Amino acid sequence: MFCEKAMELVRELHRAPEGQLPAFNEDGLRQVLEEMKALYEQNQSDVNEAKSAGRGDLIPTIKFRHCSLLRNRRCTVAYLYDRLLRIRALRWEYGSVLPNALRFHMSAEEMEWFNHYKKSLATYMRSLGGDEGLDITQDMKPPKSLYIEVRCLKDYGEFEVDDGTSVLLKKNSQHFLPRWKCEQLIRQGVLEHVLS
Amino acid sequence: MSEAYFPVESGALGPEENFLSLDDILMSQEKLPVRVETPMPRLGAFFLERGAGAESDYALPQGTKIELPLWLAKGLFDNKRRILSVEIPKIYQEGWRTVFSADANVVDLHKMGPRFYGFGSQLLHFDSPENADISQCLLQVSSVKY
Description:
The complex is a heterodimer of chains A (about 200) and B (about 150). Chain A has helices at about 5-15, 25-50, 60-95, 100-105, 110-125, 180-190; strands spanning about 145-150, 155-160, 165-170, 175-180, 190-195. Chain A has about 200 residues and is mainly α. With about 150 residues, chain B is of the alpha+beta class. Chain B has 6 helices and 5 strands, in the order αββββαβαααα. Chain B has helices at about 20-25, 70-75, 95-105, 110, 115-125, 130-145, and strands at about 30-35, 40, 60, 65-70, 85. In chain B, the strands form 2 sheets. In chain B, strands 4-1-5 form a 3-stranded antiparallel β-sheet. Classes of the chains: A mainly alpha (about 200), B alpha+beta (about 150).
């Protein structure tokens, strides 16, 4: 049966748990495209023969190959599209700088798409909330307040807040700071969000 | 990761599969029994078990019964049944339908076919005289199972 390789691509993605991005299967794709080329050429030849030599009996075969071409196309497009959905999710999970391990899993075109998406998202976020914009990637649900209570886990030093004042982040000190400014330090393990 | 990943969902329970849905692609890979109504030349490479060999002009003879994936059956089917005719798989036929109407809970659907509802719904495309009964059965089973 045709389209085995194309199905392999689809299964590979389907198997990856929780939206993980497997490596880009360039070789698999190449094989699918080769199969499509062969099918197309065989069909071209048979169509000519059907017309010139009156071989109407070839028509079901031509249809068979045509269905396989359509199937290969569907699998390929679905594979590429689903990968983009996963890559889009990466922006929300990891922020605008992706870990290297993930970047190696993407093709050059996918990286370019990611960069475009990042830009569109940034433009959109800048247009919200007045002059400064609003970073909506910080929380999956709308936050209850814009300031949060944080505790310092290690000595960090001076940390400047928006209005120019600075706070001294010393181990175990607690502060009430703007949420968005703390996010990065929380990710780095310097601060800890204290839930009251 | 899964929080921001929204895959294309299946459309198989509706009138058409979703083109981009991985679930639907996998569902339509499942096979069903068909009967070849007109010989198909030059496809001998696929049907080696029929003794075709690599002869280039071997034509699958009329009347041959084979199993084809749903996508191919759908693609080759037309209402005049010129290329092939489709046989409803046993699980959707009258014998099993009676079992389902008696007590659908006794049937382990995971074993019978993991995509029972989607596949069954798409079967309706083949204009079988049993279509009304098949859809009735699918509705009934889903209401019992859930």
